[in-house]
Specification:
The chain is mostly helical. The chain has one domain (about 1-70). The chain has helices spanning about 1-10, 25-45, 50-60, 65-70. α1 packs parallel to α2 and α2 runs parallel beside α4. The longest helix is centred in the middle third of the chain and has 25 residues, at about 25-45. The radius of gyration is 19 Å and the shape is elongated. The termini are far apart.
Length: about 90
């Protein structure tokens, strides 16, 4: 039980806060935090052109680390659609 709580405390970021609770409390809190971060991670990843499903799973598995990774990602460049007019500048 301590091994699982130790792994979850690292992935959720509780180790950085030096959170000291019982293993059952730590596991429950980590799972709740990770479940809350998964959709947020997926939304940010989708806005940056990445797969929301993959990043939701990563957000649940890695918690705050996946969220930090999505915040540091650059948006993926959009590929031009076939038959679409070339992009123009609105600077004029």
């Amino acid at each position: 039980m301590w091994t699982i709580s130790s792994i979850l405390s690292v992935t959720s970021g509780f180790v950085l806060m030096r959170y000291r609770g019982g293993p059952a409390e730590l596991i429950a809190t980590s799972l709740i935090i990770d479940a809350a971060l998964a959709p947020l991670t997926a939304i940010i990843a989708a806005r940056r052109g990445r797969s929301p499903l993959v990043w939701a799973v990563l957000g649940f598995a890695l918690g705050m680390w996946a969220l930090a990774a999505t915040l540091l990602m650059r948006p993926r460049a959009e590929e031009p659609r076939p038959g679409a007019p070339p992009p123009t500048s609105d600077a004029a």
